Amino acid sequence: MARHHSPRFLQLVHDARQRIRELSVDQVKAKLDRGDSFVLIDVREESEWAQGHIPGAMHLSKGIIERDIETRLPDTTTELVLYCGGGYRSALVADNLQKMGYTNVFSMDGGWRGWCERGYPATTD
């Protein structure tokens, strides 16, 4: 929830959102249901991932994704959909990945909380 975030953090996210593309939780679910080809990446912390995540997601936390993305996903045209708790950290990561040359990056607005609020599938595997 935005009210728990500092004003400067929210400004940083707002700035990043001017440069990135976002998908709603429902749009991401529809892509999964259709079997669209994309990589879903959870950028939350390890402890958040362990408590539950979207089935089929890859975990690359915000703290390491910029360091590890090129070895894990070297094709900069691969469609990437990023999510975090609410869509703020994933927006920042999407902005950074675009700066690194990734051209098909989306942030899931609403994040894990939005996913859970809709009762969509989750796993701890």
Helix and strand topology:
Layout: H1 7-17, E1 21-24, H2 25-34, E2 39-42, H3 46-51, E3 58-59, H4 65-72, E4 80-83, H5 89-99, E5 105-109, H6 111-117
Parallel strand pairs: 1-5, 2-3, 2-4, 4-5
Keywords:
Oxidized Rhodanese, domain 1; 6 helices; five-stranded parallel beta sheet; single chain; 125 residues; alpha/beta; globular
Please mark out the parts with pLDDT under 50 across 5 or more consecutive residues, or reply none.
none
Proportion of strand residues: 15-25%
Percentage of residues in helical conformation: 40-55%
Order of helices and strands: HEHEHEHEHEH
| Rg calc | 14 Å
Q: How many domains? A: 1
CATH homologous superfamily (4th level) name: Rhodanese-like domain
Q: Write down the overall geometry.
A: globular
CA-CA gap between termini: 27 Å
CATH topology: Oxidized Rhodanese, domain 1
Instruction: Give the helix tally.
Output: 6
Briefly note the structural class of the backbone: alpha/beta
Strand order, sheet with most strands: 1-5-4-2-3
Q: Overall pLDDT, averaged?
A: 96
CATH architecture: 3-Layer(aba) Sandwich
Main pleated-sheet profile:
5 strands, parallel
CATH C-level name: Alpha Beta
What is the number of strand segments? 5
Written description of the protein model:
With 125 residues, the chain is an alpha/beta fold. It has a single domain (21-117), classed as 3-Layer(aba) Sandwich (Oxidized Rhodanese, domain 1). Helix content is 42%, strand content 15%. It contains 6 helices and 5 strands. The chain has helices spanning 7-17, 25-34, 46-51, 65-72, 89-99, 111-117, and strands spanning 21-24, 39-42, 58-59, 80-83, 105-109. A 5-stranded parallel β-sheet has the order 1-5-4-2-3. Helix 1 crosses helix 5 (89-99). The longest helix is centred in the N-terminal third of the chain and has 11 residues, at 7-17. The protein starts with 6 loop residues before the first helix and ends in an 8-residue tail after the last helix. The mean pLDDT is 96.
